């Protein structure tokens, strides 16, 4: 098994073996381990898991959305990226402007009731179309508040001062590579209540050694089956992009977890994935010399990605 899939599988197996059964905010239930760390040598390939298909387009467009400082799902929908839809849709259906069928607890109901699922999907498609076609509607209901991109690019302190954390860190890496302060934080306590979802990947730190750039992420809450494969690929891609911007090679991506959990309704899906063998990891190609702040999805390419089919599982909202 390749080293990336192996590390991920071992984490899943350990949670299943020693994890604690816990209630959670979504009322789904989890098996949880507190504290774990994975290390990925980015010179061994790009850590896009192969024991299930992880769609690179969704990973890359979400990361570019963060880098742009964008917080509106319209950009994501333009790339048919639907991974943040539920949080925006929830805001809309709870508003006085929504006049459609009752969408209370739509996430759980869509799993249990096929008739409701069809109604929900119809309403979601109408919502997405309005986000893409109606600028005023998009501005009001497509925005997720002060989530990741806002904190990375426009952190506001208690005195109203604005900080472009990502830009500042990149300048620090270029001018003071051995600093221990190459940190970007998405956890802004003064703005948590203004976010559709408080940041799960809360802060990351860069480290330069031997002309190689490494990155460590601290993730307070980790949905191991659905979220973590994306997070691994996303922050590995971020490491590549920042290294490219700074004229460095890549080193490691280090993934440190707080609450690492498997949802109770993902257990069968996890077992399916654990039964699979891996393929050789793919390679990432950056096809441009553009700044990280101007990069587009079309400037990136994954070569040699072979994987098992995707495995569907419900998202907990």
TrEMBL record:
InterPro entries: Thymidate_synth/dCMP_Mease, Thymidate_synth/dCMP_Mease_dom, Thymidate_synth/dCMP_Mease_sf, Thymidylate_synthase, Thymidylate_synthase_AS. (6R)-5,10-methylene-5,6,7,8-tetrahydrofolate binds at residues 223, 316. The active site is at residue 200. The keyword Zinc does not apply. Gene3D superfamilies: Thymidylate synthase/dCMP hydroxymethylase domain. PROSITE patterns: THYMIDYLATE_SYNTHASE (PS00091). GO terms for molecular function: thymidylate synthase activity. Pathway: Pyrimidine metabolism; dTTP biosynthesis. It catalyses: dUMP + (6R)-5,10-methylene-5,6,7,8-tetrahydrofolate = 7,8-dihydrofolate + dTMP. Its main location: cytoplasm. Residues 6-317 form the Thymidylate synthase/dCMP hydroxymethylase domain. It is found in: Cytoplasm. Pfam families: Thymidylat_synt (PF00303). Keywords: Cytoplasm, Methyltransferase, Nucleotide biosynthesis, Transferase. One of its GO terms (biological process) is methylation. GO terms for cellular component: cytosol. HAMAP family: Thymidy_synth_bact (MF_00008). Homodimer. This is Thymidylate synthase. The gene is thyA.
């Amino acid at each position: 098994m390749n080293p990336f899939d192996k590390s991920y599988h071992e984490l899943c197996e350990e949670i299943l073996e020693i994890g604690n059964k816990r209630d959670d905010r979504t009322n789904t239930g989890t098996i949880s381990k507190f504290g774990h760390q994975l290390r990925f040598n980015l010179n061994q390939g790009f850590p896009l898991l192969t024991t299930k298909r992880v769609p690179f387009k969704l990973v890359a467009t979400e990361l570019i959305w963060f880098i742009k400082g964008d917080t509106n799902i319209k950009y994501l929908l333009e790339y048919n990226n639907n991974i943040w839809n539920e949080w925006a849709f929830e805001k809309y259906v709870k508003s006085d402007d929504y006049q459609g069928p009752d969408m209370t607890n739509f996430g759980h109901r869509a799993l249990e009731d096929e008739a409701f699922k069809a109604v929900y999907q119809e309403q979601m498609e109408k919502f997405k179309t309005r986000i893409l076609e109606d600028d005023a509607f998009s501005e009001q209901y497509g925005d997720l508040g002060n989530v990741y991109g806002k904190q990375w690019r426009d952190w506001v302190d208690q005195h109203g001062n604005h900080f472009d954390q990502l830009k500042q860190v990149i300048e620090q890496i270029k001018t003071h590579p051995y600093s221990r302060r190459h940190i970007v934080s998405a956890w802004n306590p003064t703005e948590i209540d203004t976010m559709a979802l408080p940041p799960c990947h809360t802060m990351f730190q860069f480290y330069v050694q031997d002309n190689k750039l490494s990155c460590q992420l601290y993730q307070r809450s980790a949905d191991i089956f659905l979220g973590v494969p994306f997070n691994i690929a996303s922050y590995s891609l971020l490491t590549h992009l920042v290294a490219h911007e700074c004229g460095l090679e890549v080193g490691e991506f280090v993934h440190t977890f707080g609450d690492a959990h498997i949802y109770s309704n993902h257990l069968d899906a996890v077992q399916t994935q654990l039964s699979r063998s891996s393929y050789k990891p793919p390679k990432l190609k950056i096809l441009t010399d553009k700044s990280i702040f101007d990069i587009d999805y079309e400037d990136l390419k994954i070569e040699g990605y072979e994987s098992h089919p995707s495995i569907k599982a419900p998202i907990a909202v």
